């Protein structure tokens, strides 16, 4: 049998051409490519070919491979990758060097959050790439430890400006953070008939024609099946697969692997079993453990038959299986008692008292052992502190299996399920809760089981526990004296009122129970609960509480986030924006990135409402990205819808509709109301910007139909100006009046500035001519109308009315003021409408040229705005998770676009950013 070199591939011209092209362009910028395909389809061979080509062209190749046995070791994959370039770590700032070196436990410190680790790794790689381009080759991504996978996912989106290319291979059907990054994917499929035949002819040139035909037909172009089964069919004494029925693909491959085992000496098989059960690739450790299992000591030479059979590779003190299916096949083909014996031997060889020893002893255990369960519990706690939720969940599940006491078993399973929810491992939650059901018998445990079962993703993942059911559960828990748990459960019930519509009775029940909580009227948790449950009926109470609570909570990011969300729901948008802007950095510094995403989401929605587009576009993008990175699907969709709204306000209707469609596709299957409401608002704004007012009214009117999933109790109150404007221009005044009348009655119960500003506009714009002027003037004098965008739209409507009354001279003052405000805000369609009205009034108005900053890309705009605040390249990089070198590259591109030559000049281009920065710092 002839063995071809890794780069002698069959039928992969298209794939290799694509990879070679990316490598050839590496000096001009990098990126990432994710190879996807089923097991054994040839992903690893393509990576090897690309690595060889890169090395031959002066590119430094760094490698990492996911190993199932290392999935419990945080940052093990990252350590493989950066270890060869560790010398560059000396050039890093001390804190980044400490983060990077502490990640894989080099110094025994707790593993940090993946985000700062990714930033430090990016900085390290950028410094290495300054000497020569770098290619990162990551195989078997699905087997990586979770922490490394998250770091690689973050890196993948941030390499375009660096001469660094990331190539990764992921098995089809396996989840991975890299799969959700949106990087380019290269599907690796079966070989063609011609390529399959060529491969078989090389691997087994003397194969009988009948056997060859069956093999080609049944392998269906699968390279590993072709290779392994050709070798099996051509082996000594084999009559080929034609002599018996073939099993399904996965079984065929396992049979091919395990068939080789029976031809190997007993000592070699013993070594292979220990290696397959080990969580490290240490040859001395494997040899020692294997020797403990038999009467004869095994030596490294006993691996030679396995190497000759192509099962593994051994070099120095490490052992590496040739294919990740091999250890799985070995374990599956070995009786359970022998597997347990292998783990017991390994437990004697690893460091005493280590988590590795605990894991191996647990795998060897056959009966409950509470002392071992306690050690696993402690290992879970350490994993949780490191931020490795996956390892913590697995340790708790094992601890539950070994628990002798049923109450402890139920408690550990509940903790595992709760952590699985936090980690986004929803597929594990059901299984863990089903396991916990018979053992979680105490009332508190039953309450937690119910709550976890209904714990939603952004309030929408599981509708099995509605708002009313959660409220009843919170009442039960409160009666038992568990106040904190009751507050948490009631907060979940209130969240349901934001994301869905549970009905008036459920909303009232939440507020009634909230009043029984031993919390002050200005407690952030209480205000957030009642604002989510009844933002209108409790509006006066929430607004009053917000004004009392805002100052005392300064410096508490979690409290500020809760208050910011409550402020948005009652229409206090400036307060919502300020509180969210100050809370997000603190939450991020604490590692609470999920909450930081929510804070940025509130800031973005409020900023869009105020039409502060320069800052809001970047915040909305950051909120969207972070929500995606933290697995908050519907918050991610809400971020996309907010970005769509911002794009529509800028006059970028095509982009707005694209983003709105993407958000709707995510939200519609579960009727995520705030997302769908914001989508309709964005579409309405886009249609108005294009002059399609009847279409716009149709979109906006949906927000006020209780039967429509785009109806959201609070958010609909803050699109009244848009609804009225569209109605006036398309002849739907009477329809709009009916909506406004209903909301006017509701407004009597809340001092909401956002709602009253919209109602003041609507009353004036929909009034009869005899009443209109007085209402317009009263609206302009209304203290609630403080938003520059609201006032500008009010002046535009007033100016239009005056012109229709043939009072052209009077109209010009209002229209000029409106035009200036719209230009300053960057709301291009509204500025153009004001100019058209001025022209119709007889006054010439020159079209405003697009601002130079509008020509910047999204990331260039983010970087430039932060530099305008006075942040250093390093500080900007930490906020955006970019290397300082990438920040510098962006700024060098920004300066010519803006027509400036220095960093100091950015303050004149983005004056509002420095003002916001100083306001926040005060």
Describe what this molecule looks like in 3D:
This protein is 63% helix and 4% strand. The chain has 922 residues and is mainly alpha-helical. Strand 3 (134-139), helix 6 (146-156) and strand 4 form a beta-alpha-beta unit. The longest helix is centred in the C-terminal third of the chain and has 18 residues, at 808-825. The radius of gyration is 32 Å and the shape is globular. Residues 1-7, 105-111, 235-250 and 913-922 have low confidence and may be disordered.
What's the arrangement of secondary structure elements?
Elements: H1 13-24, E1 31-37, H2 43-56, E2 60-65, H3 76-82, H4 94-102, H5 114-129, E3 134-139, H6 146-156, E4 164-171, E5 184-187, H7 193-203, H8 209-219, H9 223-234, H10 249-261, H11 266-277, H12 283-291, H13 304-308, E6 312-315, E7 318-321, H14 325-332, H15 336-349, H16 355-364, H17 370-386, H18 389-402, H19 406-422, H20 426-436, H21 443-454, H22 467-479, H23 483-499, H24 504-514, H25 524-533, H26 539-549, H27 557-569, H28 573-589, H29 593-609, H30 613-629, H31 633-649, H32 653-667, H33 673-689, H34 693-701, H35 720-730, H36 733-747, H37 753-765, H38 769-781, H39 788-804, H40 808-825, H41 828-840, H42 858-869, H43 873-880, H44 884-898, H45 906-909, H46 911-921
Parallel strand pairs: 1-4, 1-5, 2-3, 3-4
Antiparallel strand pairs: 6-7
Helix pairs in contact: 1-2, 4-5, 5-6, 7-9, 8-9, 9-10, 10-14, 11-12, 11-14, 12-15, 15-16, 16-17, 17-18, 18-19, 19-20, 19-21, 21-22, 22-23, 22-24, 23-24, 23-25, 24-25, 25-26, 25-27, 27-28, 27-29, 28-29, 29-30, 29-31, 30-31, 30-42, 31-32, 31-33, 32-33, 33-34, 34-35, 35-36, 35-37, 36-37, 37-38, ...
